[in-house]
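Prompt: I keep going back and forth on a fold encoding question. Comparing notes only helps if you start from a blank page. Show me how you would write down a chain together with its backbone fold. Please set it down just below, with no commentary around it:
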Amino acid sequence: MSRSEANSGFYLRNIDHIQESPQSLNRIVGALHIRTDGNNIDCRTLPFAPGDTTAGSEAELQAAVIGQKTNVDLPLIIEQSNYYANIIRRAAAGDTTRRVITDLEKFLHTNNEQVWENSWVRFPRSVLNGFAEATFRHDLLADKENPSQGVRTDADKFMFTRQEREHIRVPVSYLLKLALADVLGAEKDLPRSIWHSGRELMDHFLNDNTSPETFSFYVTPLKAEAGQGQPLARETGKRFLLTQLLTLYANEKFHLYATGQKAAIFYSPHPPVRQQRLNNCISDAFYRELFMSPCLSGWTRGEAKQDYMHLCHRVLSRSQLNTLIKLREAGIITSNLVALPNTSNVSLANNGTHISLGSRKLGEAMKDRTSGFNRASEKYAGDLVVKMVEHFLPLFVGSYSAAPYRLDYLDFHPEKVLGFLPHELDYTHLRMIWRRWQKKAGIKIMGRPTTPFGPIWLDRMIKTVFDLKGDYVPDYRLVDYLVALMSTEKSPALDGRLHNSDRLKADLADLGVFDNKMSLYLFEKLREHEVMGFSGFEARHYSIFCRFEEDMGRAAALQNLLYCLAFQYIAKGLLTHDHIPDNPVVESERRQIIFGAAIGIPTFFVRQDTQNLFLKRIVSGASRNRHSRRYPGYTRVHNDEYRRALLRILREDAAELIEMFGMQEVIDDLSRRLDDPKHFSVAGRLSRAVCEEAGVKSPLQAEAAEFNRAAEKYYREKLRAGHIEESLRFFEEDLLNLHRAEGLRRETIRNAVRFILQDGDDRQFFSKVSKSISAETVTEEDLRKLIYLLILTIHEEKSHYVCTKEPGSTGTPHAASLC
């Protein structure tokens, strides 16, 4: 027993008020064959121990089309729309304010960079070869499993005629699938490994609500000898590289360059500034028509899935309006003068990365009907793991991923900047966060935080006179998006009971916060074997990473360590649901720390008699705590000291696991990120890079719009180039590995390479063309060869991993069939 454990009251087996668990954790430990001897655990038998974990990821990307408005689909479709014509007519008749049409025309006519985020593309249908054309026709079917039902009712939306030539218009996400189909159909008698692997990869290019989305081409194991999370990071990088090559191929082969369009895809966490501006001057229905996914790929009945996407947008838009009531009830809004949120919400255009880890041990126990580990066991233990891991999420926020953002003083209406927090936090913690955020932000007049008054002319004058800056937020995506719905008193989300999420969604639907048909939003989600085909957890709190191996790989390793540590606590009898009670206040108390870290608030407050004994143990190990003068009965805790306390707990409680995983360097790296975030954390590195792009030394020296536009440009150009460079290194290393193959496999690879390069050397070819990729000067023919080679390396890499029925993949329709 460590000294901190002994002093913290963490060992609670003798406390009278703790009840016997409805589902015995001791029985679950036995069913999983975790070997125990008193307080000693054979860590190799824990779920998520070395060799037990499988991993997959899902990446939401930003798409843009660059070109003059006379050539790009988005401005053309707006100008040709009935909505635009009706607005002009109503403005001319005086039925609506002239400002609406003025703002819309400003969006269309003042785009100096000529970047149109989330625009579709248009090109002649005749450029598609036979296989790409067949793919397009198949994806237009109303029911892909029943072609007799004919095409979708909205099929004409994707086709039009110009100058007597039939053209296609599709989202950039679907463009990727068509480009891959075209590449595969460009050569007859492709080697079997390339043809079949390429066909499988086509289904991994999807749309999220708005953005292009890809999910893992193959499931990777997390192994100490392979660098824990590095195989997952490499797979994600190669997936990104294939996305880039397909984009370049489509730009050339589908005549996008020739018709004044250039598609671009990159990592970017926020809804684009211009898209937010457009959203403020159009209706919610027209916004959905322009930006929500048509779901051409990835689903049997695409229109039904599209309706679901529209439902998500309507629900979140309504939900945002309902935050006004909660803000008034919380005493944050104290007058009738508010900045009414738009009836159309853009939060679904936020982009993140989801990392899912599966446990073979859990999956095998679920499949074995005699094991005693069933759905109820999986749920009871899984919810407890999720609750424990939530306490450690401040280690990740800003450290491994981030979404830097500048808020203008004019934005600092609580109904705007607090986003969905009223649905995620108890009123007490919501008020605490708002007060601390105002104190942190540059919105003080004579030392007193002053939020905007409402009239825009008055607020602009006050901002100018008093030089009010607003604020800089390290990870605004976690505030701007509904990431973790708060439980109700009657329906906790994580109490270990089956179907608790359905009960909570019913309660939230009655409150106008959510909808029964939608998947419950949480920072960490249990992935149930019966639903997903594997048993594990999905982390949904990641925004964007600077580098795949350095940031994503190490984050995945730490994520796995936490799951393993949670099961170690359970096996030792040190963690039960009674340690982390299931009520909204206790839930909000731990989640306020995560949101505070995302905002950059330096301190938070915890009740001295908190029911959360696990949190109490962590806080007791933090330095510089003191009793709060403002909030009697509360302890003031520094966020950075809380994170250091978490790190100390890992070094003490998980020492054996860290050694077993070979993760000492990961832990040392985490320490550097916490001690010197400016230079080592992702938030610090991204902020520095964006400031350099904007020509300022700190975020607050730039106007909010200037900083955010500079961030978008950095993501679109320099960060994308850095991701390509890193991914090319993975590709080059994989090409070298091809030459290490032996026996029949070696001959098969040689024949495939010979087919692609006609006896040319693959390494010489790669060296010749790799530099032209970032410069976008590579030829169509060389792009095809590169894509074939990349698919070949993906096929060979996938063949190295043992296919299991419990892939640690993500919540996509294909997750359970990745193998």
Q: What stands out?
A: Residues 1-20, 802-819 have pLDDT under 50 and may be disordered. The chain is about 50% helix and 10% strand.
